[in-house]
Amino acid sequence: MDGLGLRYDQESYIARQVRADRLHQLFHQSVSAVFGSYLAAIMLCWLCWDSFDHSVVYGWIAILSVSSLLRLAMFIAYFRSPDLERTPQRWERTYWITLVLSAGIWGVGALAVIPADNLLSQALVMLFAVGMSVSAVSCYSSYSHMTLASIALVLLPCTSWLLFQSSTIQVGMALAVLVFASFVAGATRKLSEALETAFRLTREMEQAHNISTRAAQTDELTGLKNRRAFFEHAQRLYNHCKSHRLPLCVVMLDMDHFKHINDTYGHQVGDQVLRQMGVVISKSFRATDVYGRLGGEEFAVLLPDTSIEVALDIAEQVTRSIAGSMTGPVHCITASLGVASMEAGDHDLHSVMNNADKALYRAKARGRNQVAVSE
User: Fold this and answer.
1) Closest Cα partner for 252 from 167, 117, 360, 118?
2) Which tens digits make up the pLDDT trace of 89-98?
3) Pick the CATH number of 227-373 from 2.40.260.10, 3.30.70.270, 3.30.200.20, 3.40.50.1370
4) What percent of the chain is predicted at pLDDT more than 90?
5) pTM for the structure as a whole
């Protein structure tokens, strides 16, 4: 069940990311649609000015101007919003409303201005409507339903009117537009599915890369950083603290009598003890700290922006937490810790860690299950 639950979570995460990718592409691709639909109406009215009712034209352009401004305001609000707020839950509904409003105004307006007695103007209106449909495919390709809704709202009013006219040419134009629309609908679905597949493959590859990267940097037994990952992160943190003159402390931790635990209870119990250590360490330090397993029963922690007094207090708390835990048949788990702070004479990370390691051996020599500070 755990494996199935993890797989479900991964699929759910990918689905959310794909949906967000589709929204992102929708907004970036369809900015031109705001200006394109408005300019198309202006150009159509200019070409057919002599055959259109001017009062209807003025009303259509005025209403279309308002809807275009609303869409433009939506785009501005989207691109100005923080990335975390650009979610499908927040923007898809708004986009749908503005799209339906704009496409509906265009389609009804085209029907209102189309002249009943001028075949050339009727053909021009249908030509511009078809052009709007083609542009919808490119602008809304990541959402097939939006594309189909836009095409239907723009084409159906005039096409339906032409179907009920007496002229064969008018009916023929309507039928040709319907045939064209059917081909566009099929292509739209295929394009949308191809885009969704591409988004999904991209996200799956990213997730696989992240999982493999994390696996390469994680100690399989404890879940902490492995030796290589620890030193990579620790070196960056050391350089940052050094360049910004921030205090930095190192804690070296070594379990007491771990060989005795392995010899007495077996390596499986020893592994359980190490896992328990990983849990204690993960809970004891901050997200800004760098900690990992160096090998065997040895662990290391870097505490940035931390004084030696605070580091000592934290190390003593960790010692008590370890002593208060037990795993299976092992009723007493203890560890020795060494603490050192970065000094002016330290030339590199290993110098500070060596000082903490020396303090660790003093804690061992003094009887174990305690913390020693570097001299």
Assistant:
1) 360
2) 999 999 999 9
3) 3.30.70.270
4) 74
5) 0.67
